[in-house]
């Protein structure tokens, strides 16, 4: 009977979250860190799997499949770039059709199938070319089209699964905390940092344990462990189904943007009202748009003067009380959302080449808790910001650290080439790996925090997909940059920057180029970020203005 609590479901319920049966979620029985930890578990396994494949893939492509160094490097960056670019597809599917929970479950299964094919590709003799008869004499047979086709099928199914999974996992994790509860909101903000920490744990295991297994026991064992890990991650994730908090689908922002642009163009001849309050918005007569959308709670956004030509999409034609399609009439909130070395230790142990990334991951693992426990309290006392640095400030710090990292890499490479007789210790790489890792921690967490906190309500998945797709552009740019440098400087000879034999190249010049590009990137970012006003402040200012207007209207003339 309506209005009577169900047996076993007593307690405070949430107005914007539901349980797996579609009932209002009971706060004490759903969500929180228990559920968030299960979601973190599947992301840890995803990172272990994806990086476990990528980090040592170059050596497999060159040593086993007999591709060139540049082609192998580009294959890896293209694989990673595709993984992040497909986050946009995953975000669209999650926001429009499946929701975050089903998207994670289905795409994790897709990733499992991809890793399984990769395991078969590395285990079956017929799917690899024969061992080189005489490598020095050029007696290596390159992998056939069929052999590379099976390998690519496994890689890109893995990339597809990674894209769908990564687009939803951080948003679904943050859904487990109630932003209306001060204590849970603080937990949600800390979730972003620990989300990245768990990613780094998976990365650490990939570049140490998995790389060692691949190098010493065989690639098929390493990839087989990846397949088992992602299956276990999926099982852990599904085990929390009855305790998760679910949010209603709001629809894809791509469709919303298209509707706003179409509505503005259709009504381009109409005059805009002088008073923005005359525009159609959430809570106006006639409802939000369509009956199906009334249940999709959205946060009303304050009006801004940007892109005023789009405001025509919210101009009411005819009877305001008659509901109209969103393709004819958008809310003002819809319009606002549319604009928005030597590797030995001792005499016997040699660090695997793929495991050198452990220094990078280790610096991340140190940076995350150090920032949470040391930097935040110190900055809080200086700035008064309870969260320490703002998201954009964290990104700027990360970009500055990346510049220092490239400079350190260039200087280390010069020293390595100068050490012609005595090999340079691998520990000379620690400063640059530490700077890259710390910069990654600041930048990634700052971006994740920014995109999830500043995005319109109900668009966390697509916003995360957009953020991760920008990472893919970096991988594709890396491939393009390597290709350009090859063509400009040559693939061999004294002038080449990136020859197959790096002892005969000028890798340090490549690092200086990256440092220069990083400086340009930081300058552009600072210019773009200076004028940004955070949503929390915009909403507060709008509320203050509204209260002042009401007070002014109540004063006697």
Largest sheet: 2 strands, antiparallel
Unreliably modeled segments: 1-7, 285-296, 553-557
Number of helices: 14
CATH homology superfamily name of the largest domain: MFS general substrate transporter like domains
Overall morphology: globular
- What number of domains? 3
Strand order of the largest sheet: 1-2
CATH topology of the largest domain: Growth Hormone, Chain: A
Q: Determine Rg (CA atoms, Å).
A: 27 Å
The overall pLDDT, averaged over residues, is 76
Q: What string, H for helix and E for strand, traces the elements in order?
A: EEHHHHHHHHEEHHHHHH
Query: Count the strands?
Result: 4
Helix percent band: 55-70%
What is the structural class? mainly alpha
Subcellular location: Membrane
InterPro entries: MFS_trans_sf, POT_fam, PTR2_symporter_CS
Family: Belongs to the major facilitator superfamily. Proton-dependent oligopeptide transporter (POT/PTR) (TC 2.A.17) family.
GO molecular function: transmembrane transporter activity
Description:
With 557 residues, the chain is mainly alpha-helical. The protein folds into three domains: 15-249, MFS general substrate transporter like domains (Growth Hormone, Chain: A, Up-down Bundle), CATH 1.20.1250.20; 253-337, no CATH class; 341-454 and 506-545, no CATH class. It is 62% helix and 2% strand. It is built from 14 helices and four strands. It has helices spanning 32-54, 57-63, 69-123, 145-174, 182-216, 219-239, 253-266, 332-339, 358-383, 391-418, 430-454, 460-489, 507-529, 535-554; strands at residues 13-18, 24-26, 344-345, 349-350. The strands form two sheets. It has a two-stranded antiparallel ribbon. It has a two-stranded antiparallel ribbon with strand order 3-4. Helix 1 (32-54) packs antiparallel against helix 4 (145-174) and helix 10 (391-418) runs antiparallel to helix 11 (430-454). The chain is globular, with a radius of gyration of 27 Å. It starts with 12 loop residues before the first strand and ends with a helix. The relative contact order is 0.12.
């Amino acid at each position: 009977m309506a209005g009577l609590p169900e047996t076993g479901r007593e307690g405070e319920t949430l107005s914007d979250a539901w349980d797996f049966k579609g009932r209002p979620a009971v706060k004490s029985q759903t969500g929180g860190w228990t559920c968030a930890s299960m979601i973190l578990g599947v992301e840890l396994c995803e990172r272990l799997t994806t990086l476990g494949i990528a980090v040592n893939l170059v050596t497999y492509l060159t040593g086993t499949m007999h591709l060139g160094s540049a082609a192998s490097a580009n294959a890896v960056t293209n694989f990673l770039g595709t993984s992040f670019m497909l986050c946009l597809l995953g975000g669209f599917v999650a926001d429009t059709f499946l929701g975050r929970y089903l998207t994670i479950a289905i795409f994790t299964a897709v990733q499992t199938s991809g890793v399984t094919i990769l395991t078969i590709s590395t285990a079956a003799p017929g799917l690899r070319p024969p061992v080189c008869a005489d490598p020095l004499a050029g007696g290596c047979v390159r992998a056939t089209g069929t052999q590379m086709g099976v390998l690519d099928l496994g890689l890109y199914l893995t990339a597809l699964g990674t894209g769908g999974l990564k687009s939803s996992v951080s948003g679904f994790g943050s859904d487990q905390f109630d932003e209306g509860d001060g204590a849970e909101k603080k937990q949600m903000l800390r979730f972003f940092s620990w989300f990245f920490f768990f990613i780094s744990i998976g990365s650490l295991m990939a570049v140490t344990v998995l790389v060692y297994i691949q190098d010493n026991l065989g690639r098929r064992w390493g990839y087989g462990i990846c397949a088992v890990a992602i299956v276990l991650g999926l099982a852990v994730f599904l085990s929390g189904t009855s305790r998760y908090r679910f949010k209603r689908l709001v629809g894809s922002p791509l469709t919303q943007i298209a509707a706003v642009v179409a509505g503005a163009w259709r009504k381009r001849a109409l005059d805009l009202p002088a008073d923005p309050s005359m525009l159609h918005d959430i809570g106006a007569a006639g409802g939000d748009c369509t009956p199906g959308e009334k249940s999709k709670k959205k946060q009303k956004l304050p009006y801004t003067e940007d892109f005023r030509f789009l405001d025509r999409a919210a101009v009411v034609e005819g009877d305001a009380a008659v509901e109209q399609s969103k393709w004819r009439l958008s809310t003002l909130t819809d319009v606002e959302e549319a604009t928005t070395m030597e590797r030995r230790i001792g005499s016997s142990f040699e660090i695997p080449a793929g495991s050198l990334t452990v220094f990078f991951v280790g610096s991340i693992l140190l940076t995350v808790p150090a920032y949470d426990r040391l930097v935040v309290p110190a900055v809080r006392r200086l700035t008064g910001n309870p969260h320490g640095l703002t998201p954009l400030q964290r990104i700027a710090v990360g970009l500055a650290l990346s510049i220092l990292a490239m400079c350190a890499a260039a200087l280390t490479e010069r020293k390595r080439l100068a050490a012609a007789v005595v090999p340079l210790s691998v520990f000379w790489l620690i400063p640059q790996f530490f700077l890259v890792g710390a910069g990654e921690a600041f930048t990634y967490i700052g971006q994740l925090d920014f995109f999830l906190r500043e995005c319109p309500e109900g668009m966390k998945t697509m916003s995360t997909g957009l953020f991760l797709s920008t990472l893919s552009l970096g991988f594709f740019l890396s491939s393009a940059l390597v290709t350009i440098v090859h063509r400009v400087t040559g693939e061999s000879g004294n002038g080449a920057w990136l020859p197959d034999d790096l002892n005969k190249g000028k890798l340090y010049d490549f690092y200086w180029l990256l440092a220069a590009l990083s400086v340009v990137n930081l300058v552009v970012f600072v210019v773009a970020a200076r004028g940004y006003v955070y949503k929390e402040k915009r909403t507060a200012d709008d509320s203050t203005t509204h209260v002042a207007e009401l007070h002014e209207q109540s004063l006697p003339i």
